[in-house]
Amino acid sequence: MRETMTKMTEKADYLEGQTKRNNVVVDGIPETQNESWKETEDKVRFVITEKLHLDNSQMVIERAHRTGNPSGYSGKRPRPIVIKFLRYKDKMAVLSKAKDLKGTNIYVNDDYTEAVKQKRRELIPAMKAARERGDIAYIRFDRLIVHPASQKHGAGERT
User: Fold this and answer.
1) Residues with Cβ < 8 Å from 136, sequence gap 6 or more?
2) In this model, does residue 150 exceed pLDDT 70?
3) Is residue 2, in this structure, part of any structural domain at all?
């Protein structure tokens, strides 16, 4: 029974991940009171064009919406925006240009399931410790990748 439950949970996580495959989450885009989906999408398109320097005329955004409780809106920190692209390659184009947002308060990330987000949170202390040792460390999906500082280009170690 326990094994069946574990398999069902893994399958549900996999399916949830597949539904988020074409999504990104954008933090830091200012929010206005009673903002409509159209206004949210216009703000997203502005960031894609002006900040990421991408031609979004061919990008099909299925939906762009804020997450979280709108009644909790205080004006201090805008709610994140989930963007669902029609095509995976549009998502990847946005993620590949996200480094152009350095110096702004806008951040673009993959839209992960809760299980993956939790795993990533658990890996952060180990990543920080590796970086303090001078190693190159980063999290890819739900895995910690560490390249020892003495190693130039190699497979590195995975945790």
Assistant:
1) 146, 147, 149, 156
2) yes
3) no
